[in-house]
Amino acid sequence: MTKEVFLRELEAGLHQLPADEVQRRKAYYEELIADMMEDGISEENAVAKLGDLSEIVDEILKDTPLPTLVKTKLRPKHGWTTAAIVVTVLGAPLWLSLLLALIAVAFAMVIAICSIVLALFLSVVALGCFGVMTMIHGFGLFATGGGYAIFSIGAGFLMLGLVCLAFLAAKYASIGLFRGARWLFRAVKGLFIVKEG
Questions:
Q1: How far are the Cα atoms of 30, 40, 46, 145 from residue 35, in angstroms, in the given order?
Q2: Handedness of CA 131, 134, 136, 142 (dihedral sign)
Q3: Tell me, what's the pLDDT at 80?
C-alpha cells in the first residue's frame, strides 16, 4: 500500500472525528512514513511497518474522548430539521431521565470500585495492626511464662508475614478491578464509534 492510499483510507476511517483532528492524525502518520523513508525503507515497507490500518483506526477512536464521539454520533446527517428539534424537545423527559440514570449508575460503579479497593487495603492494615498487637502482647507475657509468650510472638510474626501476601493480593485485585472498569468504559465508548464510512 502506498502512502497516499494509506492516508486516504485513514481519513475515511476517521470520518467521525472533527476535521482538524483528522488532519493532525494524517500529518503525524505522513511524517512517520517520511522519517522511515529517509532511513532507507521503501514506501510500501514503511506503510506495512505501521501495522494494520483498521487496528490503527480503532485505537485512535478508542482514545478519543467520549463527548466528542457522542456529539458526532448524535449529530443528524443533514442538519437539525424542525421535526428533529420537536422530537428532541418532546422526548427530553425520557432521554434526560435515562441520561441521568446512566450518570448515576456510572458514579455508583466508581464509588463501589473505590470502596472495594479501600476495604481491601484497610483489611491489610487491620491484619498488620493485629499482628503487631499480638507480638506486643506476647512480649508482655514473658513475666507470666515463656510458652504462651513465644506462641503469641510467633503468631504475630505469622500475621505480619500474611500482611505481605495480603498486600500483594489487594494490589493485584485492585489492578484487576481498575482494568475491568477501563475495559467496560471502552466497551461502552465503542457503542459510539461509527464503523461505516
A1: 9, 9, 9, 78
A2: negative
A3: 67
Q: What does the angle CA 26 – CA 14 – CA 17 come to, to the nearest 5 degrees?
A: 100
Distance from C-alpha of 32 to C-alpha of 170, rounded to nearest angstrom: 42
Q: What is the DSSP letter of 75?
A: S
For 8-151, strand residue ranges (E) read none
Give the residue-averaged pLDDT of 93-106.
Answer: 87
DSSP state, 40? T
Region for 76 from its dihedrals, namely left if φ exceeds 0, alpha if ψ lies in -120 to 50, beta otherwise: beta
Instruction: Locate 62 and state its grid cell.
Output: 478508542
Over the range 90-101, which residues count as b (16 or more CB within 10 Å of their CB) and which as e?
Answer: eeeeeeeeeeee
How far is 120 from 10, CA to CA, in rounded Å? 45
The answer, as to whether pTM is greater than 0.70, is no
DSSP-assigned letter for residue 42: -
191 grid coordinates: 457503542
pLDDT tens-place string over residues 141-152: 877 777 888 888
pLDDT of residue 59: 83
Q: How far apart (Å, rounded) are the C-alpha atoms in residues 78 and 31?
A: 34
